[in-house]
Amino acid sequence: xxxxxxxxxxxxxxxxxxxxxxxxxxxxxxxxxxxxxxxxxxxxxxxxxxxxxxxxxxxxxxxxxxxxxxxxxxxxxxxxxxxxxxxxxxxxxxxxxxxxxxxxxxxxxxxxxxxxxxxxxxxxxxxxxxxxxxxxxxxxxxxxxxxxxxxxxxxxxxxxxxxxxxxxxxxxxxxxxxxxxxxxxxxxxxxxxxxxxxxxxxxxxxxxxxxxxxxxxxxxxxxxxxxxxxxxxxxxxxxxxxxxxxxxxxxxxxxxxxxxxxxxxxxxxxxxxxxxxxxxxxxxxxxxxxxxxxxxxxxxxxxxxxxxxxxxxxxxxxxxxxxxxxxxxxxxxxxxxxxxxxxxxxxxxxxxxxxxxxxxxxxxxxxxxxxxxxxxxxxxxxxxxxxxxxxxxxxxxxxxxxxxxxxxxxxxxxxxxxxxxxxxxxxxxxxxxxxxxxxxxxxxxxxxxxxxxxxxxxxxxxxxxxxxxxxxxxxx
Length: 476
Hints:
Blueprint: H1 6-10, H2 14-34, H3 37-60, H4 67-93, H5 118-131, H6 162-171, H7 173-189, H8 199-222, H9 227-253, H10 271-280, H11 289-294, H12 301-306, H13 315-328, H14 338-351, E1 384-385, E2 391-392, H15 407-475
Antiparallel strand pairs: 1-2
Helix pairs in contact: 2-10, 2-13, 3-4, 4-9, 5-7, 8-9, 9-14
């Protein structure tokens, strides 16, 4: 099952984790204290650039009956929608720029260019997901209610179609997120399901009407004769934005190494343990400056989960310090190329569509879900307390290198043990096959000898009968 004891899984003591938490608090303070005009210029320039791209795209689409105008306008509009969704809407709604006290660039007032209302997304995402990241039964974003992303979730026949559901979700991601957040908002507000004019329903309905009218009625109508081609361009831009947002989100939450946790982990969880859960429950993907910008800097998903309300343009410098802490405490820093991270998530989606009996690994040591139980048999001694009363692990420092030995080392050891076990099983299988071949060869030889013996016996009997026959004839 998922992780129930993060200290045991991370191979850290309570003291280690609290020290790690204090160091991450220090990272936050240093960034907050250095925020200033440079950051304000960054977000204002980003807003200006996004709006310029959108205006340019919509202007070009007036000539969208021309093929190249359609392609150019659609491309400009797609980029504008991606920037608005990822770097602006998502991050502003997280409160990353609230420190500026600019009423236009504030989480309470910004409405993003997506189907779902920003206020519903803020409550569902900022509270449910970022507070209870990857906690089973608490984090509603774990599979978004339609995908089985961990073996801890019981398999149901409906999961057989999740590869198809995944493709539909990717293409309609803004609608999937909107419906998901709307459902959570109704739960949080306690609105009766039968009450059609409840506050969540009214807000949701108004936003849908606004988005549909804007993209599929008003803007296409403004282009006159190019109505149909503009409508198609808007739909295509939305599709491209949906696919990109889906890929970024899935690469940050569902590759191997993004761990899941049981609800027991929340019992008396400290700030340090919360930080550690964010580090272990998220994943990054490698990106240059352009891709990082287009992803809303969510290629730094680990840093985003640690500090969701720090400005995204600061994540690269935060990432360097988080990596240093991971090295210091021997913790894994889960990252990889965009393609690799998505393929790992894609594999999990398809693999977990099947019943557990078709899966080889258990929920304790599967690539997509593991727990402290995966270290059974190789777990090192428990913490001890020295004469000063400080809790420590007498195995935690490698005597050869002087470096800390923590989760990263434990995972390496577990992998080595698993590889050795697989090698042993292969050798056993090879020996069994060799024994079977030898047995089959022996049985063939025995059978051949038996056949030869039978032939000899038959020949001897024929010869005996022949002699007997000759003797009788001679006697006559």
